[in-house]
Amino acid sequence: MECNDEKKVLSVTDNGVGIPEDVDPFRRPSLGMNIVYSVVTAQMGGTIELVRGEGTTWVMTFPVP
């Protein structure tokens, strides 16, 4: 976890096959994705970014209260 004076960043990465480019997990999210997205964005005022590459990385950024 990185942090600075204005925000905190949580990055979660795996080394699997990754999420294909034609799949948008934000468009047709699963129950788990709905829960994570709601907590991060609505309750904590943060953002979620999907980084594709070798594996998958989710980057969640939260404002510091």
Question: Which helices and strands occur, and which strands form pairs?
Answer:
Blueprint: E1 2-3, E2 7-14, H1 31-43, E3 47-53, E4 55-63
Antiparallel strand pairs: 1-2, 2-4, 3-4
Short account of what is shown:
With 65 residues, this protein is α+β, with helices and mostly antiparallel strands. The protein is built from 1 helix and 4 strands, in the order ββαββ. β1 and β2 form a beta hairpin.
Largest sheet: 4 strands, antiparallel
Terminal CA distance: 17 Å
Mean pLDDT: 88
Give, in order, the helices and strands: EEHEE
Task: Describe what you observe in this structure.
- The chain is α+β, with helices and mostly antiparallel strands.
- Helices cover 20% and strands 40% of the residues.
- It has one helix at residues 31-43; strands spanning 2-3, 7-14, 47-53, 55-63.
- Strands 1-2-4-3 form a four-stranded antiparallel beta sheet, with helices on one face.
- The chain is globular and about 35 Å long.
- The two termini are 17 Å apart.
- The model has no long low-confidence stretch (mean pLDDT 88).
